[in-house]
Design a protein that fits this description.
Elements: H1 2-20, E1 45-49, E2 55-57, E3 63-65, E4 81-84, E5 96-100, E6 106-114, E7 122-129, E8 140-142, E9 147-156, E10 167-173
Antiparallel strand pairs: 1-5, 2-3, 4-9, 5-9, 6-8, 6-10, 7-9
């Protein structure tokens, strides 16, 4: 009886080693992917300008913020504050909007990175409001198909014509 048990155990060990050594060490699997690049208004994170001339959709379909886009101006005054949008009715008067074109909810955060050093009391900021105009909220949670409205404020306190507040608007969805 013990001899049979030893033979059965030995057979099981040999079988398990044979199965274990049959595993592969590398493999390649190809799948197709469809990644369309579209303009901001039709993208997963939709961006569309409000009615101010300083915020518009450029020829490449990307949202642009450019205070030199006014007909007779090259920029903004120093020691001033400019606001695009109305924080009391942001869903009606806004710089631009952000639409969640994904099929799940996301939290959106807006930040700004300056290209150059900025005077201490100067800033470019973005405040987000929900579809009823309530806010500001940071981050703002948008369900599928929901839109947030953004009011932009440029504060040039302590800035002179030697300063440039240009930079990059970052919109992060998590």
């Amino acid at each position: 009886m013990q001899f049979r048990t030893v033979i059965v155990v030995a057979a099981l060990v040999v079988a398990s080693v044979a199965v274990g050594s049959a595993a592969f060490t590398s493999g390649t699997v190809d799948r197709t992917a469809n990644v369309n690049v579209v303009g901001d208004s039709a993208a997963v994170t939709g961006l569309a300008p409000g009615s101010a001339s300083a915020v518009y959709t450029g020829t490449n379909g990307e949202l642009q913020i450019d205070f030199s886009n006014y007909t007779n101006a090259e920029g903004v005054n120093g020691n001033a504050t400019y606001t695009i949008g109305d924080s009391n009715a942001a869903n009606e008067t806004y710089a631009f909007n952000v639409t969640n074109n994904d099929d799940v909810s996301h939290d959106y955060t807006l930040s700004y990175d300056y290209d150059n050093s900025v005077p201490t009391n100067s800033s470019v900021s973005f405040s987000t409001y929900d579809n009823t105009g309530a806010g500001p909220t940071d981050p703002i949670t948008l369900s599928a198909g929901e839109t947030a409205y953004v009011v932009t404020t440029v504060n040039t306190t302590d800035a002179t014509s030697a300063n440039d507040l240009s930079g990059t608007l970052n919109i992060t969805a998590t």
